[in-house]
Design a protein that fits this description.
The protein is an alpha+beta fold and 519 residues long. The chain is built from 12 helices and 21 strands. Strands 13, 14, 15, 16, 19 and 21 form a 6-stranded antiparallel β-sheet that branches.
Length: 519
Amino acid sequence: MGDSYDIQRGNEAVSAASTSEYTKYGFNIFDIETIDPRFKCLFCEFVIKEPIQLVECGHRVCRGCFDIRAATVENGRVKCPQKDCSEFADKEQVMEDKAFRRELDSLRVTCRFKTNNECTWSGLLREYQGHLDENHIHYICPDCQTRFPSQAALDEHVHSCPVNFQRCPLAPYCTDEMIPRNDFERHCLTQIHQEAVIKGVLGDYNLSEVVTSEQQMETGALTNELDEKTWEKIGSLGNEVHRLEGASIGIDKQQKEMQEEITRIVQGLNTFYSLINERLSIKQGVQPTQEKLQKDIDQLHQSFENLQHVSNDGTLTWRVDRVSEKIADAQSERQTSIYSPIFYSSPTGYKMRVRLFLFGDGSARRTHISLFFLLMKGDYDAILKWPFYYKVTFCLLDQTDSNRHIIDSFYPDTKSSSFQRPRDAANTASGIPKFFPLTMLLQDDNVYVREDTLYLKIIIGFNDMPKTLLPYILTLNPALPNYVQENLIQQETIKLQQQQEQQPNTVNNPQSMFVNTGK
């Protein structure tokens, strides 16, 4: 318990120091406050440099900002700096966010030195570091932090830098510390220096040991000046006392007037609060009706979306956009799966949909994407044949002309409850947990994800279509009308049958097995 508290306390210290103690690794740019917050590092609050994503919560930071904190915290576990986020992560629980980096690279920025009218550069973020390295390397005075364009200019400045130090002439009776030159006059008026002067004048020590005759004259002058200023201050304080006595009378009068004004304000506030409470009770009475109306609107909106692209021929082409964002959501378990639009085998047929786990499910989590088939309760179930026994085929479409589609299928287990007539809204999902390796899906420029979008095709085999016909079906132009596609498929089927008659020993590839996941 103690160790856990210490780790948490240490990380809280790291979080508190995020913008002060640690080097800010992000890009500082002109008008940084106008940049979209999602492009800013949660640690340094600059534009993210070398973006990484915390696996557990999905928040993004600079790699440098994370690494320097991980190196200073026990066990290397760093608390996410996002407000209201309590997740911790070590170096094994972060991943490079390549998709987000490409988005950052195309961000337009302006050089930070535009603030002082030193630079007018503006361009893409991926070119910014090169601009800084080429144009903004400066030589800085270690004392006053002034920047100079060359080493020679810095060397010349050092001889006249106002922050150079000198020792007090009354040392060691005053102080042995080195005093900044521009603070020396202020030091001469400090209590410790004045006491040293007075003690020297009174003979508490031999002033001649530490001061020259010229300095003795200066000390006498300072003493006289101190006496004059002391009496001047005393007189000023006396006048101030008389002024304050007169002012206190006016303050008492003002206080009485303010008290009367406060009483009037309180009465007005009480009236205002009564009106607020009255309107609040009216609002509370209306709120349940508003919530019900909003719920009805949401349901109608969902129904409209579902009906926009309804398929009634036992096939579905599903477009999945924002793939990188949805993978991150699945990885952090904010939303582990997504559902396809509902589709039907015919206008009066089976009601179906597909469930997709982009970061895998069960034993396939973190290794594969998982695909599952669901039978849903439909309006015509009473006249349909049960159990459902038709072959289900999943296809991940190649978005290039290579047509290297990923195809896998399974036959339903007719004894499973997943394929009986649905009694609830939907049956338990069944399908293929290890449909496609996640590592291949995450590769840059893979043929299945383009512009952060992938396409899945689901085919229900009501006519016992041979698997060898599937690659041909997937090459058909989706824009063709259904009757044209069916015509072409029929022609290809006849062609395949003729080829099989010529080669009677051809063996079909075995079908993939399905797994009942309990989804």
